[in-house]
Design a protein that fits this description.
The protein has 505 residues and is α/β, with parallel strands linked by helices. The protein is built from 20 helices and 20 strands. The strands form 6 sheets. An 8-stranded parallel β-sheet has the order 4-16-15-14-13-12-11-5. A 3-stranded antiparallel β-sheet has the order 6-7-8. Strand 15, helix 14 and strand 16 form a beta-alpha-beta unit. Helix 11 packs across helix 13. The N and C termini lie far apart (55 Å).
Length: 505
């Protein structure tokens, strides 16, 4: 079959990225403090701030998920974590802050204090129960660290616990405010929840309530626990389904089908398989940078599109393969398709953001959220290795397409076979390096949030969806030069954060 030649000018489009555009200011009655930066992560999940952590092994594990979700964003555990390791991480995150602990760790009267102390070092007390009513635990008391102080390790729980008649308890349907007021009034740290027959059905802790008060924007599920997502390989639909099936009972809130090429038929099939199997579980899929790939994932039922092929600081896909679309154009093209289809699928702009001003550009192009890698890798909460050079500290950061990541986890994300032990030629589509240690996640995102609100105030957009109507201007190299501080002998930075914002290291 002979392929018909199509002239280049009919196949060529203009591609724009962050430094090619600015959002145009507009007459505005919107004060930055009035701006609402809440948004949709995906269908079914709303978040208070539009920041999502990238599922990379030097970016997101438990500490990152907790930190970014306390700030109102969303965290995605990377797919390099094994099944047991993912279960451990999910359990840690879900127990970090709970409105109600539905299945608290329990003690029995015949256990020794030694055995109780060994159950979980993170907890200061456990409900004491019996199972005289079959599998329904009847509340007998509570054993706390205070109850155990000065007692022999071999002593029995039943001899040391605070008995049921001295406990303050509540019904399972008690409200947050009701639980807080009751615990304050009686000066207790733990509030067992019991049914009409005194069966233990849950537990509220003062620590959890205090965390909710301290972090009102936190991204939580309908039980008051932090949400958590997991990235899974899309190369094998059956494996993805089996992994997710094991994680759902632990509280998995959403899943990300993670691939460098979301338009591949295997990724589309995995997305469809996950939605067919778990219809109520939000599925985010990608990455894509074109309308045809995005349409395939939308038709497969995805609940959000992850957009970006090659814009990340540690990604070399565009250089190695010659494939990619500048990020502003990629986001706008996918948003155009979503609008054309009349779909409600949100877009996650993934990659390329190194400065606060680029967030509003990504959102104005049509994104609902931005996914951050390099910036979050530079924070204290990232799992990357800390490296000291002279008086400055850095963190290790690498792409999941780097040679060392492919050797460790395999190359299925980039459709490269082998697990690193074979003789298969590895073609890296990412690099490894270091980033300067910048501080905490909350410090970084607080700066970005204020900058975003200020930018939206300039434009007159009160919500992120209103930003999609914003006009943008294409700029020349001279215009970009003009935009940055210039014509100074030296630039003094007010804060370390500002230094990072202006491009310093």
């Amino acid at each position: 079959m002979t392929t018909k030649w199509v002239p280049l000018e009919e196949r060529l489009i203009e591609g724009l990225t962050f430094d090619d555009v600015f959002v145009i200011p507009h007459r505005s009655e919107v004060h930055p403090r009035e701006v609402d930066i809440s948004t949709e992560l995906c269908r079914g999940i709303k978040i208070a701030t539009p920041f999502v952590s990238s599922p990379m092994d030097t970016v997101t594990e438990e500490k990152m998920v907790i930190a970014i979700e306390l700030f109102g964003g969303a965290g995605v555990l990377h797919k390099g974590m094994s099944g047991p390791r993912l279960k451990e991480a999910l359990t840690t995150i879900k127990r970090f802050m709970a409105g109600q602990i539905k299945n608290p760790i329990k003690a029995t009267p015949d256990q020794t204090l030694r055995a109780v102390k060994s159950m979980n070092s993170l907890y200061t007390g456990f409900p004491v129960v019996s199972f005289e009513d079959g599998d329904k635990p009847k509340l007998l008391g509570i054993i706390t660290r205070r109850d155990m102080d000065g007692k022999e390790p071999g002593s029995l729980v039943g001899e040391s616990m605070t008995p049921r008649e001295r406990l303050v308890v509540a019904a399972p349907d008690i409200s947050f405010d009701g639980a807080l007021n009751l615990m304050r009034r009686h000066k207790v740290e733990k509030l067992p929840l019991v049914d009409a027959n005194d069966h233990l059905v849950g537990l509220v802790t003062r620590r959890d309530l205090d965390r909710r008060l301290k972090h009102p924007k936190a991204t939580v599920d309908n039980q008051g626990r932090l949400r958590v997502g997991v990235a899974v390989s899309g190369a094998n639909p059956e494996s993805a389904v089996e992994l997710v099936k094991d994680l759902i009972p632990l509280g998995l809130d959403f899943v990300v089908v993670d691939s460098a090429h979301g338009g591949n038929s295997a990724i589309i099939a995995s997305t469809r398989s996950l939605k067919d199997t778990f219809s109520d579980l939000p599925v985010i899929a990608g990455n894509v940078a074109d309308r045809s790939s995005a349409e395939g994932l939308i038709e497969a039922g995805c609940d959000a599109l992850r957009v970006g092929v090659g814009p990340g600081s540690i990604c070399s896909t565009r250089i190695v393969t010659g494939i990619g679309v500048p990020q502003i154009t990629a986001v706008a093209e996918c948003r155009g398709l979503v609008e054309h289809l009349g779909s409600s699928v949100p877009i996650i702009a993934d990659g390329g953001i190194s400065q606060s001003g680029q967030v509003i550009k990504a959102l104005a192009a049509g994104a609902s959220t931005v996914m951050l890698g390099n910036l979050l890798a530079s924070t204290i909460e990232s799992p990357g290795e800390v490296i000291t050079r002279g008086n400055q500290k850095f963190k290790k950061h690498r792409g999941m397409g780097s040679a060392e990541a492919i050797k460790k986890y395999g190359g299925d994300r980039y459709f490269q076979e082998g697990d690193g032990e074979s003789e298969t030629v590895i073609v890296p589509e990412g690099v490894s390096g270091t980033v300067p240690l910048r501080g905490t996640v909350s410090e970084l995102l607080a700066f970005f949030s204020v900058a975003l609100r200020n930018g939206m105030g300039y434009n007159g957009a009160k919500t992120i969806s209103e930003l999609w109507e914003a006009r943008m201007v294409k700029v020349t190299a001279a215009g970009l030069k003009e935009a940055a501080p210039h014509d100074l002998t030296s630039i003094e930075s007010e804060t370390s954060t500002n230094k990072q914002e202006t491009g310093g290291n």
